[in-house]
Structures
1.
Amino acid sequence: MLNKFPLWKNIVILVAVVIGFIYALPNLYPDDYAIQITGARSSTQVDQATLDKAVDALKQEGIAVKEATLNPPNGLIRVNSAEAQLSARPAIQEALGRDYLAALNMAPTTPDWLRSIGAGPMKLGLDLRGGVHFLLEVDMKSALQKRLEVYSSEIKRQLREEHIRYRGGDVGEGNTIQLVFRDDASQNQAFDLIRDQYNEFLLDKTTDDNGQQVLTLQLSEKKIKEIEEYALKQNLTTIRNRVNELGVAEPLVQRQGRDRIVVELPGVQDTAQAKRVLGATANLEFRLEARQDAPSSATEVYPFRDNPDRTARLEREIIVTGENVANAQQAFDQNGQPQVNITLDSTGGDRMTRATRDAIKRRMAVLFIEYRTETVKKRIDGKIQEVEERKVNRSIISLATIQSTLGSSFRITGLDSTAEAGELALLLRAGSLAAPMYFVQERTIGPSLGQKNIDSGVMSVTVGFALVLLYMLLYYRFFGLVANVALAVNLMLLVACMSILSATLTLPGIAGIVLTVGMAVDANVLIFERIKEELRLGVPPQSAINAGFSRAFVSIFDANITTLLVAVILFAMGSGPVKGFAVTLCIGILTSMFTGLLVSRAIINLIYGGRKVEKLAIGGKLANG
Amino acid sequence: MAKLTENTINFMGVRRLASFGSLTAVILSIIILAINGLNLGLDFTGGTSIEFAYEKAPSLDTVRQTLDDAGYKEFVVQNFGDEKSVLVRLRQDFDNQLAENMAADLRANGDKVEMVRAEFVGSQVGDELKESSGLGMLLALFVVLVYVGMRFQFKFGVASVLPLAHDVIVVLGVFSLFQWTFDLSVLAALLAVIGYSLNDTIIVADRIRENFRKLRTGNSEEIINHSITETMSRTLNTSGTTLVVLLALFLLGGEAIHNFSIALLIGILVGTYSSIYVAANLLIMMGVSREDLIVPAKEGEVGQQSEEEEPPEWLNRM
């Protein structure tokens, strides 16, 4: 029978529409303003007592709490408004102290039954809803210092190999290395050697107050720029990796100026974790424990991380740093204790082998270095002000006896918990930083980024959508109504698909939707015009409907496939905003083909199919067969 | 069988005039672009942003007015984080004086304002993004050329890609002429225009192909005229609905998507025009003929059916 879908096909279409409806539903529930509380370290869990303390603090401030929930290891406090949220965060942070992180968050209000089937709202991009914005500053001074130390030890090693005697050498002020010699001859020899092999230094021969010959190596401007550039790029890559580990959609990681990195995490749910993972500018150093008779100038004393009263004396010399870590995985030893398996790159492996070959039965320490910014209250000019201070915290994670020569694979044991092992592995895996970084700014971008504009934008899209419905209804009458139903279903499916894929909706994404609305109608317009033409040629209504759909199909198919190709390429090549646009365009094309061809056909078939139709009116004019 | 001359609008009658018009528009756009350049937004150029902390939440409109009166140009004022923080972004490069002066200007009406932060904002898209977007656009045009070339015929491929370039250049030209800000949202709009215009062009091209195969009489120009006439109500309706949406966007959308909707409005008008007068015109200029599209006749069979582009079998089974 012409124009009649078999039952199974109608059911498939109905099921698809119902599923689309269910998964689009969460977008109707607005997010709550919330404060998320997380332990500053992964081993710190938020418990009911902590949560109560936070709620009490809010009560004292007169901030109404909508709901406080404990979902270990985090706590979430929902409040009523954006203003309440902004004043609640410092209040909670102050009440809970440094062991916990309080972060602004938007908590979805999806009902439990929807959440249980994995439905959730679409994420809105930073430009639409806001998100977290971090500004990190790379400590260039420390990057240069680190590099100069490497140069210094390398040059000294070469001097020793060439039997050029020097008295001392240190990294000095203003990006210099100063080498001290006993006499002119060795100074000149060193001068020649360094001039030949290190053209990145400007050399200067002087005599110091004690009559010693000093050779000053000044790092050239060009090389300084190069080192800074390298440090920034390396840190940028590391931050990107870490952001990826966080699983954020459409993050923005970008350099800003000479030494800063901007991180924008749109619609991020767990801002506290983001800050901890990005902010833990941790590094590792592997060092040998000092021998009993080692001179104190060659050693340093550090406390243990889990027990600050216990200390150990370590050699100054670093065997390997976190930079050489190729991979790190959390695992368990035979006793079920958490450990981290580490694989070093070939350079790191060589160095580790060389250092541990002669050190069997000695102990090796893993030194954990944390850089962080702390806010300290200080009295300045009689007023109490909050001052940001940068702190470097070095502590020993483990001190273990070397049983045999270590190669490029080995493990760290003695960690507090599985969570800590996991986090350490993540930090190591995500790469270490070439230079320490500090948060110089952290904001959660409220919808204020053009809130008014976005509101009116959404409004105008709605008005535009309504006008399209009206246009179609006036022009195509009953068939227009069918097209409108298809269009509405299309929009719903688009939203559902984006929600299921947890794609992020951005302003360019809305552009994709606008285009989709136009093109989805286009499919129906093409079909209706085709049916009209067929009717004009004297084809009976049933055949005209069938011919209209099948003839228009070719045009719709070609037009959509080419656009889809463009969209796919843009998605693959572009990033950020372009990607956001491409995603909605891709999904929109697919859903509009489904609704334009199948949903509208199903409706028309249900109405006209399988019966005798004498006359068919599309639009105002009556086209008579 | 429809007669070719009946009810057919002679679109191609003015094709020389249209060619002249299009060519002039493109050349003018390129000249304007070369002279004026694009007024790139903060997204692309970077610029300065200065954050102020107010003791009491100010009205952003008042802040804008104050800065406008003080003679600052091309600035954006927005809240940053909370209501008391105001972020001002400027096109000009940062210098220490600028921030100080602006703070003084804002304090002039008695508000307590402190400058919290002043910094140079690097390009938001970054070289990487710009490069990959540009490269992506070129690759997209190339793939369209290949696909349409294969699915239709090479002449159609050229005739569908050049109108896209035409549309993009003209929209860029208009933006350059009026010095409207070209930012990321406008770039996205441009991509939307490409998608839309391509869609339009393909629909017309598809009908031209069909008519070349179906109609035995008439020269290329007549067939093209006939095809455009046949698709006219579709073209008008689709453009109509899209323009209606965009008009709403333009009038109600507010500042943030103002330029975005302008770009789309112009782009879709130009795109609709170009799929008729650039695409079809190009086909005639390249001398498209029935022979280009005719399916090789099978054993002398000249039945209409075998020459029609058949919808895939699975669709007929539906």
2.
Amino acid sequence: MTSNSGESVLKVEDLSVTFATESGAIRAVDHLSFEVKRGQTLGIVGESGCGKSVTCLAIMRLLPQPFGTISSGRILMKDMDIAALPKAKLPSIRGKKIAMIFQEPMTALNPVETVESQIKEVFQLHFPEMNAEAQNAEAIDLLKRVGINAPEQRLKSYPHQLSGGMRQRVMIAMALACKPDVLIADEPTTALDVTIQAQILELLRDLQVSSGMSIIFITHDLGVVAEMCDQVLVMYGGRPVEYGSVEDIFGSTSHPYTRGLLNSLPRLDALPKSVLKTIPGMVPPLNQMPQGCRFQTRCSHKTEICSSEGPKENAPTKIKSKTVQESQGHYSWCKRVDEWGNIK
Amino acid sequence: MKMSQNVLEVEHLKTYFPILGGLFQRTIGHVRAVDDISLTIQKGETLGLVGESGCGKSTLGRSIIRLVEPSSGKVLLNGTNLLTTNGQELRNKRKDVQMIFQDPYESLNSRHTIGSILAEPFVIHNLLSPKERDDAVVELLRRVGLPENARLKYPHEFSGGQRQRIGIARAIALRPNLVICDEPISALDVSIQAQIMNLLIDIQNEMGMAYLFIAHDLAAVRHISDRIAVMYLGVIVEEGPSESISSNPQHPYTQALLSAVPVADPQFKKRERIVLKGDVPSPSNPPSGCRFHTRCPYVQDRCRVESPELKSRNEKIANSKVACHFPLK
């Protein structure tokens, strides 16, 4: 980590995102706050529909228009509030300050343009003063940095001529072109094979060390979280349920949902064909969420208070760490966390 | 059952897809998706089949029930060669082997109710009276944990996990001896994956069928399987009991696959891991000698010329076979 690791690069405060639908407004992200520190990786974990991707689209101001709106909260980079930025100012943020890579590189890349013209488009947009020669040299250098062999030839390739792992490397190269402060990686390895996933994760870690950028890593794979992240935010039904350092989240798990996710993983050291502990039922649709705690319909620790009161969005319970000597802040949005403490 | 306890015996199975090209669309080469594979599955046993995309694992599964036509070899189901049976006889035999597909959104007919989807196997094979079929459908729904009124609904009214339950109900309707599960959990959320794996294990304990469980997720495959076969570029490179494959891999590819699986424990962050270089070569033109030699960290000269045979190379690990000249200890 860099020496100034405590410095906050991106701060999200009380963010809510609302979608207008035929059956009324749906709040996909509900009063979410977190912070990303320089040179660190924040993991956002949760199942489909928990709001992790919507959060990132909101940060990039890429919510589908006109249905999705940021209905409350601030997204702060230094003193600038991205949520309140006028449209005309957005290009100065996208790419330069925050860049994003997507799950499926084949659909994110333009199929009828070569890698070269797609990378150079970034330069033309953000560095119009750069001449053709410098662009060429920079493009080759970028491809080298993301570990692509024979970059001169690859520049002439079209996306369909590249393998899945190679395409993701090209995406990463394009995201790095403007040296962003924050890289948002939305399930970047979900579509890849494990051996290729290992290559891409290693690449992202190396690039982070050399450039000092921060990463927001969205995934549903807890294994990837354990390997990549410094801080973890677990989401359920658009709300945060647990937030803390990776050691705290795995070592002193403090929310029944996080515990349930961890228990449902088949472990390489468990007996084959043993019964996996599962979380019963499934996530309710966003417009049918219960009052109070949203996880109560699937929680085995549920009592009266969970539906009558539920956790307060802005006042989670602070957990005393049992694993790390000095916890950086570990929070649980469970009303009953003090009663059961560290559940198994 | 004839003599052996094997439900399925696959012998020297090859499935080649022609590559057409040139002016007259002539065959200019072959994609060797399945290249000389032999395996057996015993009664009530689960064989896990792992490998990366494009290694031919799904083609192998589909070749077994002739959803794709194999080029040569034998597929013996309870002693009958499926590749030489045709017509009515093949239809009868197919009762004994069913399939569960990866994408529960695409494998159910969206215009049929769940009731008619689940009754269809009985209709096709002309079994049971209409009244008995209704009862059987209700029983199937109960078995996979869905409410009885589900039979009146359409597939779009269900979530991915529920649809996969419907797919399972359809596969077990005729009480087959073998179910081929082609990536049945990879499209599902983590908490739902565990529910479906538990269901598959439960059903197997109750009904005693064998599974061929195809997946790329080694942790899941190890969890559900008795034995595991690892595929690479159309061939099996290692085969053995689940525990010895995961704790004691003999093939460098198995070792690399295991080491690439991210472990949900931050303590493992600093472990040594083997990151394979490069991509999987094309199956239309596989490398000479050992097919893995282009990515193998321990490659030697012999590997580039001589193709290793899949055989037992370590007596200490029972029932294990590996195709490597220099197996790991």
